[in-house]
Design brief:
GTPase activity, globular, binds guanosine-5'-triphosphate, Ras-related protein Rab, 23% strand, binds magnesium ion, P-loop_NTPase, Small_GTPase
Length: 231
Amino acid sequence: MSPKQKASGSSHASPSAERREHLYKILVIGELGTGKTSIIKRYVHQFFSQHYRATIGVDFALKVLNWDANTIIRLQLWDIAGQERFGNMTRVYYKEAVGAFIVFDVSRVATFDAVVKWKNDLDAKVQLPDGSPIPCILLANKCDQQKEGIVNSQAKMEEYCREKGFAGWFETSAKENINIEEAARSLVNKILLNDKLLQSNDNRDGDKFALDHKIANGENSRDGGSKSCSC
Ligand code: GTP
Ligand code: MG
């Protein structure tokens, strides 16, 4: 297992049954006051407060999911302060993440305008081990409020997400507990899929290595593997 997988996307099967445990690092980013902390508090602690206290730097929360009879998933949620934007620290915070939410506030169009900057920052600073972008879901939060801009059009939002490389989008409300579980499930599904793909690539790389190794040592040649050369 690579060090990357160990820290962020680790998984192991216990010796007994087919029990699997995964630990995934997930980022929650977006402009100031869009509701990142509130979404996490709702998701992890089933709690909401109107009171706004800006996050300083980064906060952490852990959500444990009994995904199916044999799979436990631990989501390590990194709640990154909106004021970290363009700061050098995001490179450190993003390291080894395997999924992300970008959050905007449907009632403040400026927070939607900033989404693309967050996405570019994310894609520039973190990739999956195979170099592809980490799956990222866009959260249109505070959907209990009056909406401003293209979030009023489902079709436009879908086109926007396709164009900008989002794995999907959800209207959410931390206040009314709308769609947060659904969004998280959707992100975990993408992460699991990537995990499987990466593992099968690793296996294929393993086979390729074994073959390359045999060829390099002449073990695959018909003459029984002479390493000498007639020239
Ligand atoms: P930073 O830590 O500064 O980046 O902000 P944040 O994105 O963590 O925002 P936070 O969760 O602290 O929420 C900001 C304000 O919005 C708070 O007053 C919340 O109560 C409010 N809020 C969050 N989610 C919702 C929501 O879904 N609906 C409504 N009406 N208010 C919300
Ligand atoms: Mg916060």
